[in-house]
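Researcher: Structure prediction, please.
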Amino acid sequence: MKKILPFLLAALALSSCKSTRVGETYNLQVRLLDDYTIAEDLVVGETQVGGLSGIDYANDEYLLVSDHPSNPRFYRANIFLAGESIDTIIIKEVVSLDLPESSEKQNFDLESIIIDSNSGSLYISSEGGIKDNIDPAVLSVSPEGKLLHTLPLPQHLKADSEKPPRNNGALEGLTESFDKKGIWAAMELPLKSDGPKPKLIRTKSPVRVTYFDKTTGEATKQFPYMLEPIAKIPWLYFAVNGVTDLLEYAPDKFLILERGFAAGHGQNGNTVRIFDVDAQMATNTLDKNNLKISFYNPASKKLLYDFKWAKKHLSQGFIDNIEGITFGPDLPNGNKSLILISDNNFNTLGQQVNQVILMELTFKRQ
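Model: Predicted structure follows.
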């Protein structure tokens, strides 16, 4: 039985959901090991734990960012593994962003969080609010939550651009570069000038992934990544597919997480896929303002894992709104773990869960 600490966590008394279905590319192999649900009524530091849209791991501790606009915050947590299972999750502390008085907290829609391996400071992405002319942002934050500075964005990523990002489709995923010298920031959806949102038929829907140099803070390069079509027919009027997070596992090679949703399917409306992506031959689009008319080579991609393969192995019987991914600790066999987390939207869009996924990652080639 999984341990119960009532005032800090909720556990499911479940056996491992290990799947024999392996996802594989030339470079990588992944396998589902286990999942765990954090209680929806868990309160830490007078805040409800939910909206968990990003995760990172360092020094045996996890940081989980919440996308609650009126109280931008992140949590410190421990995720204890027992062999190839998740034993216990403890949410230890909440850290609210200490913003300048001139800032309005509701301007920040936090989506991803990463720890700088060199300094220990944090980078957090915010989608902003394009319809309200609020810029997306990459925030540099101290471990105590103090806003240090924001990175300067290319003009085409700003809300006042001539053809701006889509509302609720701006800066989403962050990852530290493999060489630790910079960070990559991914848009969720294409800029309006670059292409349409994904549809049921395949479209040219490129999102931009931008590299920021840690030393200067400047954006120095960018590559386009092509989104997959909508995977399920929406029975109600809403469907989306976009990038929610990414990891650079070797120079110019990434794990990119795509999350789609089609309304009308209840708890089975989500499509979650991990792709193995190579950007070595991709065009630098930093100086291209309109990808509809500009020639470019997108990054190449191969499907690594589709969570429809895992449905019968998940304790809830469905994959939820997975938005964050991080490398976790090494497993007993020496392979790397992957930890994924879902944003339950505070159950404002229907019944959802705070789902944590454990996977095994094997590097075949890098």
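Model: Residues 1-16 have pLDDT under 50 and may be disordered.
Researcher: Thanks, that helps.
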